[in-house]
UniProtKB/TrEMBL annotation:
CDD domains xrefs: TM_PBP1_transp_TpRbsC_like
Protein name per UniProt: ABC transporter permease
Principal localisation: membrane
Any one GO CC term of the record: plasma membrane
Keywords for the protein's UniProt record, in alphabetical order: Cell membrane, Membrane, Transmembrane, Transmembrane helix
Transmembrane segments: 21-43, 63-81, 88-108, 114-136, 148-167, 200-223, 244-264, 284-309
Gene source species: Methylobacterium gnaphalii
GO molecular function: transmembrane transporter activity
């Protein structure tokens, strides 16, 4: 006996809409069982994870600040994944963007007469550096047929080591008591805060703008149609005259640019200087966010908020309930698996075929 997946002739729009919600409910139930096995009340854990972060102003700001880079990176990755291209190196592109833009902030430290230009130049430098770094695996794939999965992933560690070297060497603050960090950025090199006395900065608006632009591009432009067509049917795209090589370069440049912009927004926003680590793993977590959002920018924004919510809630549960932080990561992975499984059920019927592979005739 074997199980076959048979495509549904008519897909239910209601099932497509409800499947992520059902997957989330299933993940919460399974997580509740795991929490109960650890000796903690599932109800108390649910309140700590999902209710308490929504009840305080500071935690709402933290959710927005964590969701913004995730949404920005994941929106860029959606262009690659929709075109059936696999950029796994957004973490490295994030780091390179932060390093390049941060270098501009350091080079202009204390400068007079050009304050108004510093921040825009930093953002442009970070975006261009991330795009250029992403083009390395893209060019290797187009020219030499090298797997973009391996090259983009390996370049992550190159970027991290480069940042570590720079902040411990050429960019280290000479008056910083030998700590591995750069000078603090001038106010002109920092993203402005949206509210006086709070932590919410303009990077959140940049992420929202990116989501809106990506939605328009993917749904209303010829390039968006090309991305969708190449991902769905590469052969049909070639017959239509679309170039695989050109799309590969464009998609990687967009995803890398978005990651680089997120990197400099993080450095010029929350951190305010360069240091050996500027990312808690945003580039890798954004891969989960991209698929949780079903490669759709509005869905990605919602998924980024959910992941940020569980992260803040997990930190609270670690303090209040003594639950391990790894439980939060396991929940996020479980949620991704259940969402993908729900998508399969929404698209296919499961058919039981008696006999199995051994009973089939060999030609």
């Amino acid at each position: 006996m074997r199980l076959d997946l048979v495509p549904r002739t008519r897909r239910s729009s209601l099932l497509n809409l409800l499947s992520p919600a059902l997957a989330f409910v299933a993940a919460v139930l399974i997580g509740g069982i795991a929490v109960a096995a650890l000796g903690v009340s599932p109800v108390q854990a649910f309140v700590t994870y999902f209710v308490m972060p929504l009840s305080e102003i500071w935690s709402l700001q933290e959710i927005a600040l964590k969701a913004a880079p995730l949404a920005l990176i994941a929106t860029g990755l959606a262009f690659c994944y929709r075109a059936n291209l696999w950029n796994i190196g957004a973490e490295g592109q994030f780091v390179v963007g932060g390093l390049a833009g941060g270098w501009v902030g350091i080079a202009t430290h204390g400068a007079e007469g050009m304050a108004i230009w510093i921040l825009p130049v930093m953002l442009i430098a970070g975006t261009m550096a991330g795009a250029a770094y992403a083009l390395i695996p893209a060019v290797l794939k187009v020219r030499l047929g090298v797997s973009e999965i391996l090259t983009s992933l390996m370049l992550v560690y190159v970027a991290q080591l480069l940042l570590d070297y720079m902040v411990r060497g050429p960019l280290r603050d000479p008056a910083g008591f030998n700590f591995p960090q750069s000078v603090g950025f001038d106010p002109a090199a920092r993203l402005p805060y949206l509210m006086e006395g709070e932590t919410l900065h303009m990077g959140v608006l940049i992420a929202l703008l990116a989501v809106v632009l990506a939605t328009i591009v993917l749904s209303r432009t010829l390039f968006g149609f090309e991305v969708r067509l190449v991902g769905a049917s590469p052969r049909a795209a070639r017959f239509a005259g679309f170039s695989d090589a050109r799309l590969t370069l464009a998609a990687f440049a967009i995803s890398g640019g978005a990651a680089g912009l997120a990197g400099i927004a993080e450095v010029a926003g929350r951190i305010g200087q360069l240091q050996p680590e500027i990312s808690p793993g945003y580039g890798f977590t954004a891969i989960i966010v991209t698929f949780l959002g079903r490669l759709s920018p509005p869905g990605i924004l919602l998924a980024a908020i959910v992941i940020a919510l569980t992260t803040i809630g997990g930190e609270g549960a670690q303090i209040d309930l003594r639950l391990p932080l790894d439980l939060t990561r396991a929940f996020q992975g479980l949620l991704l698996g259940l969402v993908l499984g729900a998508d399969v059920i929404a698209r296919y019927h499961v058919r039981i075929v008696p006999g199995g592979p051994s009973s089939r005739a060999v030609p």
